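User: structure tokens for this one?
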Amino acid sequence: GRVFDTREVEIAEMLARSIGRALLEARMRDQLAFEANHDRLTGLPNRSYQQDWLERALARARRDGEVLAVVFLDLDRFKQINDTLGHDVGDQLLRKVGERLKGMLGTSGHLARMGGDEFTAVLPDLPGAEEAVSIAGRMLEALRQPFEIEGYELFITASLGISVFPADAQDARTLLRNADAAMYRVKSSGRNDVRLFTPEPGFSALEALALENHLRRAIENGEFRLWFQPQMRPDRVLDGLEVLLVWDNPKLGRTFPSRFIPVAEENGLIVPIGSWVLAEACRQAARWQRQGYGRVKVAVNVSALQFARPDFVATVAEALAGSGLDPRLLELELTESYIMRDVEESARRMAQLRALGVGIAIDDFGTGYSSLSYLHSLPADTLKIDRSFLGEAGGSPESLPLIQTIVTLAHNLGLAVVAEGVETLEQFELLRSIGCDRMQGHLFGESVSLAEAERLLAAGSRK
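Assistant:
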């Protein structure tokens, strides 16, 4: 055969290196593109890729007149597995859940991990909503078989919500939001089930839009009012006021928070509204102090969106500085469920707030499932026992041990306890007998206007 000279060999090697480099760069580009669109843990499409995929699937569904559904799936009590068996087991479980769901769906749906223990499936080209419910039911059934991980046999259930195009929404964002809302309804009514999205009764899309438009101008038009719910000590002396927001609009009339807060949370208006409430509550408490009503503690609810903002601690500091209120007279109520989403970050943020001198209350306590083990590490002052406990108590001593345990545990950790939803004298007496520090509910007045709150304060200051 022919002998290659040195120059030809060099050219061949150079070409081989160039081709190798080009292939490596192409592979790296493919890898980077994959990583940008996929979840690193499960290898499934991630949130941004799923939204893009949904947009494209919606365009096809609109063009071809097809039905499409979004299924939002959240594992039930996954946090317990993470907390008791460790994150390695939790991660393996998420991988296996992803594999099992993907295998079950096959080509009938596009599965993604949205983050944490949340997954979504986009189901295109359906004959109708019934088929979406049927597929979601099979997803739920697939998870009911145990998972074998590191010698553990793990059983897990899930809550699934479904939103359907074109019946429930016309765009990707609203479809995802509605499926998420349907999933939360499953969570709140017992978990381990599938539910189709249903709009709030008597609350049409047009009404929601009108409400949002009015809401955008409510602060500048001075339409918000603070109302107050009394918190009483066991000796029936007023010990504080929880702030409630009432909206008086010329066209809509008086609107209570249960009606407009969900809309405000969806469109981000909860942040400026929450800042206004905080500043106004501080101003009002400072006015009462100057007017001789004494040191009135005010409790203000903080939404998850507010608490998550990097500037939230600064917002609280500004409200205190602007009003001149003693920080010890402000208590911020943080819901247990969103504190538990990221305990370390929540604890860090709570410590910054405590450093300002304000009190921290953990609201709706007892509705979560793994919070007891974290209580000692959370810089809080008060636990608010969720009203559902008292619903069960109904004044009967048999259901007291759980509340008694929470009160004892809280007191051992140096925390005060507030019971919500106190409606009867029997409940009041039982709570007093086990050392509950404060109570609120129908028995003492559910919520009162500013003028009525000042009458209560005047009566209290005369005692």
